[in-house]
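Quick one, T. Sequence first:
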Amino acid sequence: MTVTFNDIIDGGLLKKRYEEYEVNLRTSKIKDLMLVIRDFMEFIKSLKGAVYSEWLKRNLLEQERIAKKILTVLKVRYFLIFLYRRIVDGLVYKLINSIRSFLSQLPIK
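Structure tokens:
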């Protein structure tokens, strides 16, 4: 559902949009969550330009800050998985070499 900010004059539409985000944020799929967060951030950025209430601006800034943290954590997660995989592969390779070295030194009769 694409809503322009001319349409959000009605508080009911704003509430409905936030309720949709609330439902969509409960996804367990990382890629879907990243898409929802990015869309939410675009929504917030656009909404900030049309808001004059200090209370609402503070809330929007807080929501944007939290969304940015979520995106950062998700991006770091991919890096950590890559790093984790390289470390584990390296340690497995070392263990295999150690086992082979041990087996080659066993006196087999």
